[in-house]
Write a structure and sequence with these properties.
- With 83 residues, this protein is of the alpha+beta class.
- The chain is built from 1 helix and 4 strands.
- The strands form 2 sheets. The protein has a two-stranded antiparallel ribbon.
- It starts with a strand and ends with a helix.
Length: 83
Amino acid sequence: AQSGLALQLCEVREGDGLLMPISSKQHWFVASDVVCLAALQPVFLRGQSRGKHLRREKNRWKVDPEGLERWQRMHAILAGEKK
């Protein structure tokens, strides 16, 4: 038996790592499809109802700073290879 992983494909906004879904469809992958793992963080917004507090945005995620830096470096390397 082979295990798999269902993922929703997203674009990564290069400046801050915000994930934007490409579609709502899930795609299946196996372990050999995964090149680099990056941790995700929930997106928080400042609320205005009772002073300054953070409100978690439902179903919105971004790549953590370390993962974003790795992704940006890999993106630059692959862009250089295409030239």
